Amino acid sequence: MKIIRTTNLIPVNAQRTSVLLVKSSLGDGQAYKWSFPGQVIKKDDNVDEIILNISLKTLGTKINKLIKFNLYENKTKNAIVKAQYNIAEIDMAVKLNKDSRYDKAEWHTLNEEIFFLDFQYNEKDIITELIENLNK
Description:
single chain, 136 residues, alpha+beta, four-stranded mixed sheet, three-stranded antiparallel sheet, 18% helix
């Protein structure tokens, strides 16, 4: 089975009370569902450069603080996705690049209401773990 590696940002505000989620019209039947911004890592890609591109070119903001968070695996019918997630503390003034693959970016408060959103993959698990870690 094919293995796909990705790197993803979990953008949070400085107080770590809200998370930025994105929606995309592209995808494998998962269009218009909430997710974290990320990118597939190709063989010769530099992960640090990908992270900078996601924040600067896609979200139009810089990262104030970056923390490695966790590695998650998703199995699809065609591949295993190994996704590295990083918490990125960013400014709340985000300007989504119109040429990015994302159609929408919104801040959501990290409380029980966030779990009513329609997510692409395993974001609910990631958010649950994020809330537990931020409350330690």
